[in-house]
Amino acid sequence: MQKTAVDVICQHSKDGTIIPLRLRVTDAEGELQTYTIKEFRRLATGGSYTLPNGVHISRSAFVFECVIPVFGQRKLINLYYEPGDIVWKITY
Q1: How far apart are CA 44 and CA 41, in angstroms?
Q2: Widest pairwise Cα distance in the chain
Q3: Number of structural domains, the chain?
């Protein structure tokens, strides 16, 4: 499974916490779709490893499991932020 780059609006708190708020992704027709993140939890990284879906996570990555509404349904996605790359990525 590949990670796809997406636009993310997030809050950076004074204690260093990152809170993802919204994301924008290009759909199959090439149109931008915006989603509000309704729930999230930060997953512990604990070092470099590969997830069961084949995505490699580095020690410095931020990994979030998020819920977004899509056509009235709750969809679970994973957001990844690698501080060195300064790019947010998604798998779903």
Answers
A1: 10
A2: 40
A3: 1
59: CB partners within 8 A, 6+ apart: 45, 47, 48
Which has the closest alpha carbon to 63: 3, 22, 13? 3
pTM of the model: 0.80
d(CA 53, CA 51): 5
Tokens of 41: 């939890």
Range of the domain at 54: 4-91
pLDDT in tens, 16-71: 889 999 999 998 899 999 999 999 999 876 666 566 666 666 667 888 999 999 99
- Residue 2's nearest CA partner among 61, 52, 78, 54 is 54
